[in-house]
Design a protein that fits this description.
The chain is mainly alpha-helical. It has helices spanning about 15-30, 40, 50-85, 95-105, 110-120, 125-145, 160-170. It has one domain.
């Protein structure tokens, strides 16, 4: 028999990620503005364009970390759902498919190749939405594994697009056991 996963309860809600993103973005903009108390000392040797470029670099990096957090929250929601459907022995077609998957792979099931494909196969959730998720997770893998290669993603991922994708997922998928909105 496969062991149960103990849930930590530390997964992030999308609203908390968004609040954190907004707060850090505002703080960066203030820090890099002439009204910041540290501005004169911190940027004494800079010209204005250098300050602006450094701010843009910081904001870009912050955006990547936020996207990573959003996609991690999406993954947590799907993995909690996957496990809850197994533990509760639900009888709908998706839950049956996920239980069979759990018997074969346990908690090591692939999110993109196994869990997303089960959703595509056994629910009426639009296949395009699942393909969009798979693409976003390719971007997340690139972020998580050091960004040392040129990714072939087919599109650019930004905070607004990934946030909208996550909101759409949370409103379209009947996920079990995870309150992540």
């Amino acid at each position: 028999m496969l062991e149960r996963v103990s849930f930590s309860g530390q997964h992030l809600e999308l609203s908390r990620i968004v609040s954190h993103h907004t707060d850090v973005e505002s703080a960066l903009k203030l820090y890099f503005s002439p009204s910041s108390p540290d501005y004169v000392v911190r940027f004494a040797d800079y010209v204005a364009s250098e300050v602006g470029n450094e701010l843009l670099d910081r904001l870009d990096e912050h955006e990547r970390w936020t996207i990573f957090s959003i996609l991690s929250a999406v993954e947590a929601a799907f993995r909690i759902d996957y496990l809850q459907r197994n533990y509760k022995k639900k009888k709908d077609p998706l839950s049956r498919e996920l239980r069979a998957l759990h018997k074969r792979k346990g908690s090591r099931a692939s999110l993109e190749d196994d869990i997303f494909d089960a959703w595509k196969k056994r629910t009426s959730v639009p296949g395009r939405l699942i393909e969009d998720l798979k693409g976003a997770f390719k971007y997340r893998h690139w972020l998580a594994h050091g960004r040392y290669w040129e990714p072939k993603l087919g599109r650019r991922y930004d905070y607004d697009g990934v946030y909208i994708l996550a909101k759409t997922v949370f409103s379209s998928f009947p996920l079990e056991g995870a309150e992540l909105h």
